[in-house]
């Protein structure tokens, strides 16, 4: 399905063209940058309507723009339109969605939030919402809703919301202030003396809605692109197992570990502590050089708790990793309650001439969940660790998991607010999955853990990204385990397949990372 990636939605009205032929006006608007047109003129006789729809199909194709037909699904199908635009007086959204499947985009005209919510639940891909301002063409719909109501709709709906009704260049700042970056209009373009110029000015005033940190194709601030921007070459992370253990296993913080923990699922098989660090590194670098053409490397101390040793032991391990000329830095995964002052000082010193990323496991922003999964630390421990690590010239990455038993989606989404409130540079997110040898696998077999469906996880990941500030880089959106030990869910995806599933969901919605950040 095509993405809703057009900020300006032009609706036709042949009576509002200042006496000029509608097709001439539309051609000028398309030349000015309109990328989606809705044929409305619903008072036309059937034959003329279909004829106009066909002409518009040809014209919009010429400019690579989308064509929507107001209400008439039969006409949309007959002329090969990209979508239909429905409303309260048209066929129900759910019925049209059933009839057309995902091949047809569906827009919906809504005059209130409850109505819009229902349309989205029924399958609408975007909403035109209004009238926001007073306008003669929408007088029949009552008093204008205003920008506060518009803002509530933008915040509440998981699809693009187009401000409709009386939108003009002079009130665009108020629309943007309401968090709305999509507009639908008629006369501001079609009645303008120069529709091409009017379109250009509106688009320029709307601004490029994607923040500069966000990759325009991916709609995400990906860590890979961040590294490329920062170091101007292709960089891969190479996992090593430095032989650490974990205080949540050896009894100093807890025993048994987190209920999902089986470190075999974390790492490639060649990273075992019996293999010297330098050999693990060589094998990992050779693999990434060959497979991805990587030029430089970040050594990732991943398995167990990689600050759980004396500062001397840590210094020896980290320095050995940094000794290779192609290694630009280290990434150190640890628990928030296992970060001694000595470890922090060591990382601070290394960060003076190398890249350093400190990866802290939060997993959930809910203390009750952290207790249930035997995590052995609290949200407050995490916040304290982040604050102690901040301002030391290294990146801080937070690890999160979605799908814990008893976790509500809206609570998970609040973790984006927590991340936004802290000096965190990067995030790793993955679905909760049970692997052999864990308490979670036993819970799954007893029916106490029901994994998320792939669709629910992808939707939640997209929701999460929309709430996450654009400056936070995304390192991971998926957790995988070897199929031999993966119990559930067994999606069998590769990392990049999940990545693109989430990217495609953002494209479908016409949103991006940070879209819902105020
Ligand atoms: S903190 Fe990490 S290594 Fe320790 S038990 Fe939990 S998941 Fe495993």
From TrEMBL:
Recorded superkingdom: Bacteria
**Pathway assigned in UniProt:** Cofactor biosynthesis; thiamine diphosphate biosynthesis; thiamine phosphate from 4-amino-2-methyl-5-diphosphomethylpyrimidine and 4-methyl-5-(2-phosphoethyl)-thiazole: step 1/1
Task: Spell out the GO cellular component terms annotated for this protein, sorted alphabetically and separated by semicolons.
Answer: cytoplasm
GO terms of biological process kind: thiamine biosynthetic process; thiamine diphosphate biosynthetic process
Kindly give the Pfam families that the UniProt entry links to this protein: Radical_SAM (PF04055), Radical_SAM_C (PF16199), TMP-TENI (PF02581)
Keywords, ordered alphabetically: Iron, Iron-sulfur, Magnesium, Metal-binding, S-adenosyl-L-methionine, Thiamine biosynthesis, Transferase
Binding of 2-[(2R,5Z)-2-carboxy-4-methylthiazol-5(2H)-ylidene]ethyl phosphate occurs at: 135-137, 166, 186-187
Q: What is its EC number?
A: 2.5.1.3
Check the record and name the SUPFAM superfamilies matching this protein: Radical SAM enzymes, Thiamin phosphate synthase
Write down the required cofactor(s).
[4Fe-4S] cluster; Mg(2+)
Q: Which Gene3D superfamilies match?
A: Aldolase class I, tm_1862 like domain
Q: Which GO terms describe its molecular function?
A: iron-sulfur cluster binding; magnesium ion binding; thiamine-phosphate diphosphorylase activity
User: Where in this chain does the record put each Radical SAM core domain?
Assistant: 225-475
Residues bound to 4-amino-2-methyl-5-(diphosphooxymethyl)pyrimidine: 38-42, 70, 109, 138
| Recorded catalytic activity of this chain's protein | 2-[(2R,5Z)-2-carboxy-4-methylthiazol-5(2H)-ylidene]ethyl phosphate + 4-amino-2-methyl-5-(diphosphooxymethyl)pyrimidine + 2 H(+) = thiamine phosphate + CO2 + diphosphate; 2-(2-carboxy-4-methylthiazol-5-yl)ethyl phosphate + 4-amino-2-methyl-5-(diphosphooxymethyl)pyrimidine + 2 H(+) = thiamine phosphate + CO2 + diphosphate; 4-methyl-5-(2-phosphooxyethyl)-thiazole + 4-amino-2-methyl-5-(diphosphooxymethyl)pyrimidine + H(+) = thiamine phosphate + diphosphate
Q: Which NCBIfam families match?
A: thiE (TIGR00693), TIGR01212 family radical SAM protein (TIGR01212)
| Function description | Condenses 4-methyl-5-(beta-hydroxyethyl)thiazole monophosphate (THZ-P) and 2-methyl-4-amino-5-hydroxymethyl pyrimidine pyrophosphate (HMP-PP) to form thiamine monophosphate (TMP).
Q: Report the family membership.
A: Belongs to the thiamine-phosphate synthase family.
The name on file for this protein is Thiamine-phosphate synthase
**Species name:** Oryzomonas rubra
**Organism phylogeny:** Bacteria, Pseudomonadati, Thermodesulfobacteriota, Desulfuromonadia, Geobacterales
Gene name of this polypeptide:
thiE
